[in-house]
Amino acid sequence: MKAIATAERRIDDSSQQWKELVYWHRRCAALPNFACNCVCTECIFLEIKFGCGRVENSNDAYKCCPMAFNNACKDSFLEDSYFLQSRQFCFCGIIVREGYRCEEHSVITEDGYILRLQRIPNDGRSSRSGQKLPVLLQHGLLQSASDWVLNSRNHSLGFILADAGFDVWLSNVRGNVYSRRHVSFHPKSQEFWAFTIDQMANYDLPAIINFVLNETSAPSLHYAGHSQGTTIGFILFSERPTWSAAKVKTFHAFAPVVYLGNTKSALRHPMIEMVGGYEFMPSTRFMKWLGGKLCTGKTAFLCQNALFLFVGCDFLNFNMTRLPVYMAHTPSGTSVSNIMHFSQMIQKGEFKKFDYGSHENKKLYNQPESPTYNVGNMLVPVVLYWGGNDVFTVESDIMRLSKELKSTLSIHYYHDSDHVDFVWGTNMADGAYRRMLELELIIICLNLLAKYSKIRQLACAIILFIIYRLGSVLSIVVLSKQNGVKIWLRGLVYLLHVVVVFCFYSLSIIFVLVCSCHKGAVTQMEHFILKTDINRSSIVIFIAHYFVD
Fold first, then answer.
1. What is the predicted pLDDT for the residue at 280?
2. Active-site residue, 518 included
């Protein structure tokens, strides 16, 4: 309350000119630098008092003036900043600030955990009715749903999917900053933190998927996970293959974490067992303050090195000015048991359930060793995305995973990307995110024409892809005009690129259809094409698998 009192006192002492300035600008981010460099609560109360009217209750204030609780003061990192204190306002504030609508929902799992979901409904910026394809984004280890929207609108997957017309759902698993509630247990109790990825996969993810499908009345959804989000996806989809195949159309696995026997991450050392308590790296005011202090200026390298130890973060594809923003939301907390589970996966080199010791294992699993998950049982079509600079999930482990999977549609490799680039990297908008949209467009087209012949479906898929690429041509032309570049030159270059891509795709698909309908031919084509153009040709492999199957 001290900060609030200070803010009110400064408001009373301010001049009429200052009041008019605040009223007309309406947003802290639009005020002069000296305004946001002061206490953020002052900035907020100024806006509430003169922009929306005086509201005492913070919840009512958010409803009255949500822009006051947005990410405007993100670079302040002061103790009494609402951006850092109140994440329930901050999350939707980030989304609303970008011009999208935001909803929040709660889901109760079978074992009593209360999870929070955020939603960017329909096209994200419109209240128009009409069913959209739901897509569920699941965050990684020590992260939260906010990581999908921390970059700008053009570089955040949550916003990109919303602009593409998807109904975007962002979920939070038990134990992170948004899902620290239980119907019976207190977050400070030992019982609350008795979970690992096993429980996230068996309880959290099914409850979330069922909730999204019930809310949207959609028969199925698209699932995209990063890091730990892929792990729980592989567990659920392999343990309940029939159920999953009926509810999940596609599974996009960014930096998939399944086999970790060759990881170079610091988690390979069993020192994690020495960590006391039950919660690991919680999201606290001190951690957020520390992140704000250490991740700026001359000490920013400390944050870089800390991330590098775990995931190989080289920051080549980062907007470094937003590093304090990332660290204000990371870590988001998990259980010590969950970290120990990943450590066990590293030490054993296998994809197993949590090892409680031979005595407890016999009680739970009826065997002394913890059971192994069989990813080969999975029926959900999966697309793998991985980076060459990732020290957490390395090439040998990814290749082992791809060989054991029987439902792989395509594999995408980004040689200059690391583990966290798939959520924070600015290179993903034209990389993995574009690949994801291209594949989804083809899937939508094939589903719409399911009653027609496969030749017509193939033609539609190719035409739709060309239209998608031509849309990029038009955007390049518009940008060229704005930047004073010769329009015809850039447009011609990009148009030639589209023609070359079209010919490459067409010839590859015709080769598969004409030469053979045997799966071995597709496998041979995979090895040939992946060596020449691993990213662009993945769609060819996807269509080839579809027609051969």
1. 59
2. no
